[in-house]
Amino acid sequence: MTLAMMGPAVVLYTVLTVVPVGVAIYLSLTNWNGFSSADFIGLDNYRHLFDDPNSTKSWYVTALIAAVGTVCEVGLGLVYALILKGRSRGNSFFRAVAYFPHVISALILGYLWAAILGTNGAINNTLGKFGVGPVGFLFDENMALYSLIAVIVWAGFGFNVVLFVAALQTVPAELLEAAAIDGANRRQTNLRVVVPMIAPVVTIATVLNLVGLIRAYDIVVSLTGGGPAGSTQTFSYLILARSFESTKVGYATAQAVFLMVVSAVLALAVTALRNRQDQAATG
Amino acid sequence: MRKIWRRTCAFAAAPLVMASAAACGGGDSGSSAGGTTLRVIVNITPNLTEQYWNTLFDTYEKAHPGTTIKLELTGTISANAKLTQDLAAGDPPDIAQQITPTAEDADLYTDLTDQPWTAKTPLADQYAINGKRYLVGVGEQIQSLVFYNKAAFTKAGVDATGIKTLAQFTDAMAKLKSAGYTPLQTAGQWVTGAQFSMMADAGVMTADPDWTVKRKDGKVTFADSGYASYLQQYKSWIDAGYLKKSALGLTYPDGQTDFLNGKSAMYIMGSYFVPAADQAKKSDGIGVFTMPTDGAYPSGQFGNISDPYVVVNRSKHKAAAIDFVKWLVTDPEAVKSQLAADGNLRQGFTYPMSSLGTAVQQILDKAPSVIVKAGPHQPIAGYSDQLNTTIQSLFSGTSASSAASGLDKWWNSQN
User: Fold this and answer.
1) Is the minimum CB–CB distance between A130 and chain B shorter than 8 Å?
2) What is the CATH number of domain A51-282?
3) What φ, ψ does residue B377 adopt, rounded to 5°?
4) What pTM, to 2 d.p., does this model score?
5) Residue A238, Cα to own-chain centre: how many angstroms?
6) How far is A149 from chain B (nearest CA, A)?
7) Of A155, A220, A241, B39, which one's alpha carbon is 20 to 30 angstroms from that of A229?
């Protein structure tokens, strides 16, 4: 009976997840170009991951986006949620404003910000009228990477605000009252009472942001196109815009499998760290 | 069975490999009750817009009732990438524009050699693979051209007809800079690397037309060839301020607009720049000369077939697709329309040209050769992207020698 109940879910999971991953792992061991026959080449694609000059650089870019982006998205989301946790029209409005970019396609956001930050964009045009600039938001290698991160954070932190505001509603009022009676100020209450209470949601948000940012692609395409000089080329961009376009589907699949493994390891690591902290806190 | 396995593989791997490729859409190629629908993918450019293609296709549909031509947009990716995705997903279009078959993937495309009309299409033999014609085009475009702002040259006291060597080109840039102009216009996206190719290929490949073949065989390298000196030259222009780093933050159309608006004095670009200048009504103020080199003058023109079309082998309507492609590349009105839209050229076909278009035609007439990078002369996959990244890195302090050795390292890593 139990098996019969689980059957449909198991079949769906197998067909939609297990089989694609299995096939992807198989393809990653071949030199398939996407259309003709594939030859088995063992681990050659995985070895090539480490001698491909573009891979190393793209991993650095991806790691920086994931690390800085996650910290900023979660941190900003938390601060914003703590400020706007109360129920009022004003707070609702500002929460909606924060969430708004999340409902727009990342591609469109990228084009929008390119029009703002580009050499002939709104900001540089305005600065030019005062004889300043142009500022290298998108043409300076270092600044372009941080412009990309800033846009990603702007576009993504609103999702965390929604998560955190929802979590904050679950913090028992008695705890807050007790903290107030004990003489805790607002900062102390937030740090010592509120944040620990919503720690599981923070962990989920951290994992979701981390895994999402490791796969950053669409906003890269529209904002910087991976440039200048490949300085904003993420690993996903490398897979889709370089390896796949060059019909190296076997190699692209190896890169994708590697990315999947890295994402899984990071997600597990963050969750494990959180669990260990929780266990230490409880006893 | 094998076919089913391939499709299964493609379907199953798609969520992982193409998770972000939202542009990938299904098609509905087929025979409807009203007739045949042909699915076509093309590259959308500032000259060849979606509206242009639809108008062109409407003309065919009116003359061929029962056939519907469906333009499939490629989103943020090139026609080549879209075709690769569609093929891998087992749902390719019937016809693709701007695809250059290689010996490795030629069997994906219909062999058109038995179609007598293909022999008379431009550069048909240069693009043949093992003597077979898989690709037919509308015309030719040449790319080793330097467009210049006549007013800027007059103000700087530069005579364009006297620029035949790279040294003279460099001197001209110095004078233009002194006159208050940005001497050479570039842009981000693909433009930086493409301009370098337009410049360096004219010199290196006029001297050695088989350079790419030799590079594939490992007999030459970037670091020990003419490309090294071109990289050195380009780097020296950046250091002297003849090229602006801020231009890397411009899109291709923005860079073009800056030149047209007189913000810069020279612009290395292909013949397809002419319609943009015509449309902006700036053609008369712009001149053009062939790219100077340190070797022969005039050099060969780096060029290619324009509006190349392939019929996908898996098309369910191959005969109808071939008929449509035949119309695209042989019908006088269709040919003239496409030539004029993108500023391309073809012997035996004329269309009203501006003074700038006529000047480009004269350069082609005088060119000793058209250097076509097709067949064995086609660089390895991904080269143009890598070159673009490398050239842009020169703006951030990478030395010319590092750039050359980096290109060699990348090329060697792709084998």
Assistant:
1) no
2) 1.10.3720.10
3) -90, 0
4) 0.83
5) 17
6) 17
7) A155
